[in-house]
Amino acid sequence: MRVSVALIVAVVACGGATLADAQHQHRHDSSAPRARDARQFVKFPAALVEHTLANMRDHLLALQEIQTQLGMGQMDVAAKIAETRLGMSSLGLHGAAHVSRYMPQGMQDAGTAMHRAASRFAITAQDAGVTGDMKPVFAGLADITAQCVGCHASYRLK
After folding, report:
1. Three-class secondary structure assignment of 26-47
2. How many distinct structural domains can be found in the chain?
3. Residue 48 CB: number of other CB atoms within 10 A?
4. Taking Cα atoms as reference points, which of 136, 91, 137 lies closest to residue 114?
5. What is the pLDDT of residues 42-71, one digit of tens each?
6. Residues 146 and 108 in one domain
7. Is 25 a residue whose pLDDT tops 80?
8. pTM of this prediction?
């Protein structure tokens, strides 16, 4: 019986992977002409490029850790991660004042909007720990990631 269940799970999983692969190929047809990257190129000093990319990877890690804590019902922990790693109080940690000198105004604005969204999210997550209302939490998390997506869609470092 266990072998049958395992076999069925494996077949379903492979079928799902095949469908996912087909959908992925459909969206990214390698034979289609490649679109020009229209994002604005932002030139940073070499050392700051690495620093900034490391900060962005940490932002992504913080988002993952926030999601993990939300999944475990740990609203206060998610809030603390959001504020200390992404929120307005994290600006000194990231050297934002030094890095922002090299950013165009729109990129600065997107970064500020992300940090502000994270600080608002921290409060919302703490509130949800009391109220149990998760809708504002997910909306707040979406607001943070929307700032990231918008910035990455508009700007690039090299």
Report:
1. HHCCCCCCCCCCCCEEECCCHH
2. 2
3. 17
4. 91
5. 999 998 999 999 999 999 999 999 999 999
6. yes
7. no
8. 0.77
